[in-house]
Amino acid sequence: MILAAQGRVIVSGMGKSGHVARKIAATFASTGTPAHFVHPAEASHGDLGMMIRGDVVLVLSNSGETPELADLVAYSRRFSIPLIAVAGRADSTLMRAADVRLLLPPVPEACGVGIVPTTSTTMMLGLGDALAIALMQARDFTPEHFRLFHPGGRLGARLSHVRDLMHGRDSLPLVPPEAPMGEVLLAISREGFGVAGVIEGDALVGVITDGDLRRNMDGLLARRAGEVMTRHPRTIGPDALAEEAVAQMNALKITCLFVTDDGGALVGLIHIHDCLRAGVA
């Protein structure tokens, strides 16, 4: 029913059930199922306008008799908006009115007197998370989709792609294999990456790093880039996660990676400092 909905999932509940409903709505919205919370008391004072045909209503109430839900339930019935009920009593008013009834198991509350919402709200929360995960799987929801809804913070940074952080080809120190090493040194100093790429056409054929310079100090300026470069350098694709680039750089003890596409053409460079600034580390 939720997958078939053309609109949003309207999640509602009163009291502690309402707090759980807010969380379920937030989890739905962040995982590809448009949803928002409607407070049942506010619904009676105008917020029923947030619900339209094409939506689905998910209502939580352990007793199924919460009076504040009456107007919201009646509105959903009047306008044929599908109603999913989560409650602990099969014969309750809410469950009798619902199109889909999700009955909570008869487990007592954790408190000694059996009246404080504890076990019931935990079950509601678990059910909401299970629904969210089932919907994610049905929608083939991927980390890339997740990042669209989480662009900020540590999570968003971890899901950044290399193409989001890399420097484009036009800003890179690139030289042909026949370039004299004096020209290579100027290119390395000018761009500030501490490395130069050696290219033939669009292809990256080698790199020259500080280590290559030290290994070839004897007669360095008399050499050509092709003589000094390290051939077949490690590269990464633009669609890889930036976190993968950091892992490779850490493993190889290097500070940058050239970026090449599926055809081997050079498209950019990603530096460890770019990753650190974005929070990917």
**Biggest sheet details:** 5 strands, parallel
At the first level of CATH, the class of the largest domain is Alpha Beta
Compressed to H and E, one letter per element, the order equals: EHEHEHEHEHHHHEEHEEHHEEHEEH
Broad structural category = alpha/beta
> How many domains make up the 3D coordinates?
2
The percentage helix is 25-40%
If classified by CATH, what would the architecture of the largest domain be?
3-Layer(aba) Sandwich
Sheet with most strands: strand arrangement: 2-1-3-4-5
Low-confidence stretches: none
Please report the distance between the alpha carbons of the first and last residues: 41 Å
Overall pLDDT confidence: 91
| Radius of gyration based on Cα positions | 29 Å
Please name the CATH topology of the largest domain. Answer: Rossmann fold
| CATH H-level superfamily of the largest domain | Glucose-6-phosphate isomerase like protein, domain 1
The tally of strands reads 13
Number of helices: 13
Shape descriptor: elongated
